[in-house]
Request: fold
Amino acid sequence: MALLLQLVDRVVTSKLELDCDVLTVGRNQDNDLVIDDIAVSGLHAQFEREEDPYYEGHFRYFLHDLGSTNGSFVNGDQISRQELKNNDTVKIGWNEFKFIGDDYEKHEATAHILSSN
Reply:
């Protein structure tokens, strides 16, 4: 299961499992993840989970900005909708998160670099 780690001064202060198809983020109390930060819009963004059409039983994760005033960022770049990869840094308002993807250890352990001689 994918995780979202909240960072303060590069130290993990909390973690959230991304175990649903849509997780809303914003300042309003009816969001799944409420962030009390004036730089965060009432309904700021959402994390989306989609089944991977090429890898049965696995998911792809996206961050989708919902027209927020101050934007959403992945690895320092402002995005409208961006697929998340393991170890991506997400910034919403003044809040920083680290995305840890599904089965990242398994994927990294099976990665090979092929070269031709």
